[in-house]
Amino acid sequence: MLAVMVWSNVGFYVVLFGAAMQAIPRDIYEAVLLDGASRAVMLRKITIPLLWDTVQVAWIYLAIAALDGFILVQLMTNGGPNFSSDVIGNRMYDTAFGSETKFGYASAIGVVMFFLTLSVAVLALRAARRDRIEFS
Asked: pTM for the whole thing?
């Protein structure tokens, strides 16, 4: 399931980082090359700091996709043997539409899932907070 999840999301991250890379002016790279910096220094000192906002967004999308993962688990294993590949979304679905329909309990699981996802996003933003670097 991990391979399918990576393969299904890799295109989004290629487009996300490709657009962010194209937004960095080439003049910055030319000036750094004229100063004699190596490619590794350019990556560490120029590219990554200018892409840091995109990295933060990518981490949040990745965390949300990891918490969700419902559709892949539902289609591929339906929770797996003895709930070994179960995720929160699959547990919520089974609670609501399984043999015993407990819509209230499933709604409570959904609310907990919402606050868990929100907490992960806030923690990721706080942990990766830096001074904003702007270029003109």
From this structure: 0.72
